[in-house]
Structures are given as C-alpha cells and as structure tokens.
Specification:
By secondary structure, this protein is of the alpha/beta class. The protein has twelve helices and nine strands.
C-alpha cells in the first residue's frame, strides 16, 4: 500500500471526462477543484469551448486525438496517463463524468474508508439526479441510481480508486463502449480487492433527458454493453451479463415470435397470453418498487420502462452481433 503524508485534500486527484457538457461541465470542474490536489479534464471532441473553460480553472486538459474512436474507457485511461505525468505520487484517484458534480465532503469520506479498510480497492457513493421531477426520464434515472450500501460488484463510472490498483488492473478496456466500469470492476475484484458503496452522497448527476428517443437509444447502448461484456466474461463463474442477455432474447424476440406464429391457430389467444405475461412482469416490478418505499407514480414509471427496456436492448444485442460478424470496430452509441 502507499502511505503518504499529504494533507487530506492533497491525497486525491480527479480525472473528469466530457463531451459538449456545457454548464454541467462548469459545475463538475468547479466541484472538483474545490477538494482535489490535481484535476485532469479529458475532452472527446467538444465544440462548445469545454477545453478552454477547463484551462481557465487551471485544470490539466487533454484533448483526445479524433483519429481513434472515442469512448469513456479510452478517455479515462488517457486521463490517468496524463495525471501520472503531473502527479505521479498521488495515492487516490476520483473518476468523474462531465455531467456530474461532486458533493462537498465526499472526497474526505471516500479517502477515510481507504485509510480504515485495507481491503477496499474502490469506493463510491450514492448518485442523485439534480432535477428528478423535470422529466419522467430524469425520474427514471434517479430511481436507477438508488442502491443499497455495502459491498457491490460494480461502482459505475464515477468512483475513487487506489492508484496502484488502477495500474495493476491495467485500466479500462478501450474497446468496451459501455459497461466498461462493470468489466473493469470485475478484473479489480479478481485481484482480491473489494468495491464498497458507502451510505453517503457522492455526486449529483444531470442526465437532461427530455425525449423518448433518447431513452430508447440509451437502452440500446445498454443491450450492446450486455452482449459485449458477456462475450468477454460470460464463460467465467459469475457468467457476467449472461442472464441479462438471455432474458432479453426470450422476452423481446423468442416469445413475441412464438405468439405471432401461434396466433392463427389460437384465434389470437397466444397474443393475449403474451400481453398478460408482460403485465405480470410489470406487477412484480411494481410490487418490488412499493416494498422499497417508492411512491405509486415512481414504481409505475420504473416498472413500465423495465418491461419495455428489453426491446431496445434487443437491438443493442443484434448490433453487437452485426459488428462482431463484420469485424467492425466498436464505436460509441450516443443517445443525445
């Protein structure tokens, strides 16, 4: 382990990544420079002046070469390399997305856990949507962030990590275009480290999603992520994302095809049975939402989108298979 004598605010550096985040990036970087020793901002081809703003705050700025595909994984890896040039002895790194701002006091809380628990390799905290009532998509995202604290299998893309562990794990796989955090955390856990979700707020997130098409595209990206990470690690003991992919294939493709094929022979009853099966899925999810203390409207929103999620996710699975079959590079699927 690394043991430094820095003051608390000198032990942590921030690597923030972004692309055309506008005012959200301004809030992000201002929150980062408040508590961090060093801040590196990695830009993926922004046209809104984001790099210039970051420089105005005296952040180290790295603008990615557009000759290679952009991805969050690539941005974080190159941000880490840039950080090591400017602060090679920093013991802890906080990764942050440009649409998030750090909650004041989080840096100190996260770092204290590292000091107290030698087995902790990654720590993260709760993420909350900044404007959950603005749209149903914002509310849905806020509900998705709600997890129970404790040991978890993945931290998400916003987390604090020991520098030595990031280096030992080899960083992110730059070709994983989504769920790169799941893939990375899996390798960290294989090294014997634990990932801890603290019962403390870490960041405020502003997804700023206003259209159904944006949600659909985001769900498609998730399906692609499931397929790609399952292809990489589905054969392990954890069978990572294998069950998620199986449910998507069954509920979004196999059962609908079966119901349609049987419709002429069942006078349409097979289609009715399929609708009833979806309704049962909704009811189960709705009941779990109420058990978690959600309001009826919140549980309804979450359950409805949980049911229909499998259809855009299926498109993501198919897109992964198409790219894999053609030998194409895995480029990011942007939803905004």
């Amino acid at each position: 382990m690394l043991h430094m004598s820095y003051e608390p605010e000198q032990k942590v550096a921030v690597v923030a990544i972004g692309r055309n985040e506008g005012d959200r990036l301004k809030n992000c970087l201002r929150s980062a420079i408040r508590d961090a020793r060093t801040v590196v901002y990695v830009d993926s081809g922004s046209t809104d002046g984001s790099p210039d703003f970051a420089r105005s705050l005296n952040c180290h700025v790295l603008e990615l070469n557009p000759s290679r595909p952009f991805s969050a994984a690539r941005a974080r890896n190159e941000g880490f390399a840039c950080l090591m040039e400017h602060a090679p002895d920093v013991p802890f790194i906080q990764f942050l997305d440009g649409d998030c701002d750090l909650v004041e006091g989080w840096i100190q809380k996260g770092m204290s856990v590292f000091m107290e628990r030698a087995e902790a390799g990654i720590v993260c905290g709760h993420v909350r949507e900044l404007y959950p009532q603005k749209t149903i998509y914002n509310k849905l995202c806020d509900l998705e962030w709600q997890q129970f604290p404790g040991e978890v299998r993945s931290s998400g893309g916003r987390f604090m990590i020991r520098t030595e562990i990031f280096r030992a794990a080899g960083g992110f796989r730059a070709d994983v275009i989504a769920a790169e955090d799941d893939e990375f955390c899996l390798r960290v856990r294989r090294l014997g480290w634990k990932i801890l979700l603290l019962d403390a707020e870490m960041a405020h997130h502003d997804i700023a999603m206003t259209r159904f098409g944006e949600w659909w595209r985001r769900a498609t990206r998730t399906g692609h992520a499931f397929a790609q990470v399952a292809a990489l690690h589905g054969g392990t003991e954890e069978r990572y994302f294998v069950e998620d992919c199986r449910r998507i294939w069954i509920w979004a493709l196999l059962l609908p095809l079966l119901a349609i094929c049987l419709a002429p022979f069942t006078f349409g009853l097979s289609l009715l049975a399929l609708l009833c099966a979806y309704a049962l899925q909704f009811a189960r999810s709705f009941r779990r939402g109420l058990q978690r203390g959600w309001q009826v409207r919140e549980a309804s929103i979450f359950s409805f989108f949980t049911v229909i999620f499998k259809f855009p996710a299926l498109l993501g699975l198919l897109e992964y298979q198409r790219r894999q079959w053609r030998g194409q590079a895995f480029t990011i699927i942007e939803y905004k």
